[in-house]
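Myb/SANT-like domain-containing protein
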Amino acid sequence: MIKRAADGSVVKKENLTWTDHMDNVLVEALVKEDDIGNRVNATFTSQTYVNMIAGLSKQFNKSIIKDQLKNRMKTLKSNFSKWYDMYRGTSLSGFSWNSQTKNIEAEEEV
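Tokens:
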């Protein structure tokens, strides 16, 4: 499917490779938006995306579109959920975090 701009020109979707630094900045921006009240009933408002696209595009000197932002947020949420469930969730699958060694440890039977 070809996407077109309002003027009829073809919009080329550019791939964006996210770095760890970019992920950290994104999470900090999400926390900031939550702190200023742009998250209602666990859902970010449309103003959140406007603010974040402008801020991240400027900070990274890259054009970021809403789809790229939303896709990265989904990926981060999915990855976080998997790790959280592994060693902090209710099932506690036999894994745990050792804060002294800074490693994930497993019970013998695991």
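The chain has a mean pLDDT of 83.
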